[in-house]
Amino acid sequence: MATGRTHRPATRSRGIPEATVARLPLYLRALTALSERSVPTVSSEELAAAAGVNSAKLRKDFSYLGSYGTRGVGYDVEYLVYQISRELGLTQDWPVVIVGIGNLGAALANYGGFASRGFRVAALIDADPAMAGKPVAGIPVQHTDELESIIRDNGVSIGVIATPAGAAQQVCDRLVAAGVTSILNFAPTVLSVPDGVDVRKVDLSIELQILAFHEQRKAGEEAAAGVAAQAAGTTAVPAAAREESSATDQGPDGDVPAVMPA
């Protein structure tokens, strides 16, 4: 199997938009589930629903892969799994280093989804001397002093940063200087990198804040709807009451009463 050092995905050279690239893992996850159930073909509507996108966007995305499906049949599941895996670079081995083996780093090291998707955790690195040699997920933790040699010896091009924010930029600089060209950053800070280095940021607190915004907006809308309904209920006058009021305003012959004498 090829290593990440000698082969890189061809998505950019083939002109696939970044938005499409971001959706390919969603399609692959849905297709993998279908494959595990031995489903041979899938329609664009079914796959779009499983991936959470609309079918027109899915068909457009797949056109960049040269896959148009067969009318009346749909898409071949196994072939699409291969196509998307190849485009994402998952048909080869990608050695990864995780730097920062605290609670988050240890959880990432124990995540079984990496290996099944072509990512091999080659090393775990931490600045705490007390962590050196301790096994996490069956892998002994190594000290940051060995970072450069670890990257060189394992042909690593992808690094995961799970350090505190204050240490993240220094770790990033060392990773880049050692030859890492793609970084997944879990530290709550923005990293500065040179051209040619890709950074993907995962900030759980930001995602929670976005959810909090939506919850607050929904609560506000519900409160406003409640006030409006209450206001409508207090201002509306029943028809019977209106008729009764109208009758009391009339004179003995049904006419509007004359002005009373002073």
Automatic annotation (TrEMBL):
Residues binding NAD(+): G100, I101, G102, N103, L104, G105
Subcellular localization, as worded in the UniProt entry: Cytoplasm
Record's keyword annotation contains DNA damage: no
Primary localization: cytoplasm
Subunit field text: Homodimer.
Keyword set, alphabetical order: Cytoplasm, DNA-binding, NAD, Repressor, Transcription, Transcription regulation
The gene coding this protein: rex
Record-annotated DNA-binding residue ranges: 26-65
Lineage of producing organism: Bacteria, Bacillati, Actinomycetota, Actinomycetes, Kitasatosporales
InterPro entries with a match to the protein in the record: CoA-bd (IPR003781), NAD(P)-bd_dom_sf (IPR036291), Rex_actinobacterial-type (IPR058236), Rex_DNA-bd_C_dom (IPR009718), Tscrpt_rep_Rex (IPR022876), WH-like_DNA-bd_sf (IPR036388), WH_DNA-bd_sf (IPR036390)
Species assigned in the record: Streptomyces griseomycini
Region described as Disordered: 234-262
Listed GO CC annotations: cytoplasm
Known role: Modulates transcription in response to changes in cellular NADH/NAD(+) redox state.
One GO BP: response to redox state
GO molecular function: DNA binding; DNA-binding transcription factor activity
Domain annotation CoA-binding: ranges: 89-190
Official protein name in the record: Redox-sensing transcriptional repressor Rex
Family recorded in the similarity comment: Belongs to the transcriptional regulatory Rex family.
